[in-house]
Structure formats: C-alpha cells, structure tokens
Specification:
Elements lengths: L5 E4 L2 E4 L2 E2 L13 H18 L7 E8 L5 H12 L5 E6 L9 E8 L2
Parallel strand pairs: 4-5
Antiparallel strand pairs: 1-2, 2-6, 3-6, 4-6
Helix pairs in contact: 1-2
Pfam families: Ribonuc_L-PSP
GO molecular function, one term: deaminase activity
GO cellular component, one term: cytosol
Length: 112
C-alpha cells in the first residue's frame, strides 16, 4: 500500500509521518539511530520540496522517539540540520509501530 507523503491546502502543507522504513517490506532501513535520524531529516527536506515548501517555511515539527536515550542525539541532529533559527518542535517518547523503528517526524509548513 502506498501512502501520501503530504497533504496541502490553504497555503499549508502537512507531511505524513516520515520514518526510515523500506517501502516494500515496511522494515527499518537501519537499526542505528543516527542513520535513521539523518534519513528522516533528508526525507523531510525532499517531501517539503515536493509540496512547494522548504525548511524556511516550517512552522512546527513533531518528533516521536522510541526511547529517552535518543533525546540528546536528536537535539544534536535537529540543531545541526536547522541551525540557530530552528523551527518550533515537540518531541515525544513513545512506542513506535514497527520493531526497530527509532524515530519518526512530521511537519507543518507554509507553501511558497
């Protein structure tokens, strides 16, 4: 089954959850947090570009982590990716739907 990468309307784009999963098997592309974090941030940029937006248009990012132990590394990845003017974000620790999945992100952004 293929899912939409984003939904858009009224000048706003909402991404679907972005996770480092193989689309054919729905298994994690890696068991390493740093690899998954890099992948989701790169894919976030791609999805926003497809929707006619980009990093500068992001209003809010939500991140879901599989454990508290990843929070410090996630902070480093986020700061490195977005720089000093990083968008507002919420980070939650929760059980993710696929074993081995360590991070998932979604974002809300303006188009244009």
């Amino acid at each position: 089954m293929r899912f939409a990468s984003f939904g858009a309307g009224a000048g706003i784009v909402a991404t679907a959850g972005i996770a480092a999963l193989d689309p054919g098997t729905l298994r994690p592309l890696s068991t390493d947090f740093d690899t998954q974090a890099r992948w989701v941030l790169t894919r976030l940029d791609e999805v926003l570009a497809e929707a006619g937006s980009g990093r500068a248009g992001i209003l809010h990012v939500e991140c879901f982590l599989a454990g508290r132990e990843f929070f410090g590394r996630w902070n480093s990845w986020y700061a490195g990716h977005f720089g000093p003017d990083a968008p507002a974000r919420t980070t939650l620790v929760c059980e993710l739907p696929v074993a081995g999945l360590l991070i998932e992100v979604q974002a809300l952004a303006v188009v244009g």
